[in-house]
């Protein structure tokens, strides 16, 4: 598998290099008329071929990466992609090809306008989780106050080190406004890098949502601080009034983005009340519209996209069929994965193609101070969260260590740094030093910390995410506990988390959902869990060869009952034939199963009304799967006919054998006669009882 991946990567690299090549053939004479069978227009389509080639390479990488032995277990995808980008860029530069012509450059426009929105939208769909809401208060503390603490630690300390002479000699004069400008972009904890690393590790949801939610909301705060510091760096002097406007803009940019996001989310819910097969496309377009219209207004498009995604996943998804919701989630997830991979690959390109100005003292002190500021903010606010018992949660020191170590920098910081190229208020050499230092910190955090975070999680014995099972009993128990705790808080006169959640749930179900949803009851978690369990059992019955996949999320007790046949009244023993491997959920026996004549008689005399009222009678798994040597083949064919007749999929084309088709037709007539006889006798007995 490793050789296959190397071969695919090498082939695509040669293809891209060939597409980037310059045409050396001389132009034909002007007076010569040529009729060409093949017209080579490589100059026109060179950027498109290169872009498609890179996307194909990334798609193949996402396919084969999990199958490469040992690599997927120890090396994160982000690091491999960055190294691959560096290698490809080095090869392209060595061949003398201009990299700018390919348009494969991670510009701020490409990142913020095209690559980042799908990642944020996919993440916002996954944030519609109770764990995220439970940890929302602590996430906001880390994202807002923690980011501000980092900003006010990095800027003054970097300036103090420069004044104290700790930087290397020959460093140009850097004013304090430039140090604060550097602090405003380097505090951006990249959600793309954090998402890629923590998903591979599989940490528990509490730690995952805390770090990922902090990095996601941290971006909005970072962009606001960056825009404010750009204005201050461009101004010759800053008055108190301008500082006040800057502080006010911090709130207007964030709250304005949230307002636009909620409005567009509500519009999405109202428009999806009318059923249409274009609902996935409509939801995606409205979410992207909220991002771009908010950016046009100068507000935070990231916060707008998060709020719009939360509204869509919480309300609009219940107006759309399950098939369309799954389609939407699959589309966004695939686009998001390719966008993440492309971001890291282009980040490797940027490291090799950017003009760098190395400063040892500046870069090393910046990395040390960034790590120190991250540690101070996490430790201080973790103690505050633990002392105040926010949401009755406690963050252990081991989890705090992972949160400090998980402060990875990525494409957000690099894109903000590259925006300095157009800021002429900053000295050119200072801009190059800041860009070089930013790329150095990104390489160290993604390379060193990203590579060692998995072993650190194992050494720290951090609790990983347990396997989630679909259980109606668990959902009902959680709901009963929530109601009980809310009642206790009401009795003692306290307004806590449970009572607040109960109050919001009542208002939501009574006022909000009737407006935004055409069927408000569809959001009920117990009903959705029961629906998922029923679908899993149904597909495990229809396709027993894939029963392992369909039953993996069900409780073990339910799976055992399903396999024993307690849910259907029959057994589920399976006879292992020659050259046949048993499924994980099959009970393999050495002898063929016994005949079930009583079961077949019961099916023949069952009236159609009882079949429709008791659909669980039609789920005998042991009667559908193929059994070599099964003597009860006639009963299997009879049961198959009944199932297909109820699903309106039975036709003569399904049975090429005319004799078999005629036999099943006669069997159907016999079954209908038995059902009519049974129904008429039952009606007669009821009339006798009435008389």
Automatic annotation (TrEMBL):
Keyword terms: Antiport, Ion transport, Membrane, Signal, Sodium, Sodium transport, Transmembrane, Transmembrane helix, Transport
A molecular function (GO) term: potassium:proton antiporter activity
GO biological process: regulation of intracellular pH; sodium ion import across plasma membrane
Comp. bias regions, Polar residues: 666-684
Signal peptide annotation: 1-21
Topology class, membrane: Multi-pass membrane protein
Domain called Cation/H+ exchanger transmembrane: residue spans: 63-458
Region (Disordered): 609-632, 666-691
Keyword rRNA-binding attached: no
One GO CC term, this protein: plasma membrane
PANTHER family referenced in this protein's UniProt entry, alphabetically: NA(+)_H(+) EXCHANGER PROTEIN 7 (PTHR10110:SF126), SODIUM/HYDROGEN EXCHANGER (PTHR10110)
Protein family (similarity comment): Belongs to the monovalent cation:proton antiporter 1 (CPA1) transporter (TC 2.A.36) family.
NCBIfam families: b_cpa1
Protein name, as recorded: Sodium/hydrogen exchanger
Taxonomic lineage of the native organism: Eukaryota, Metazoa, Spiralia, Lophotrochozoa, Platyhelminthes
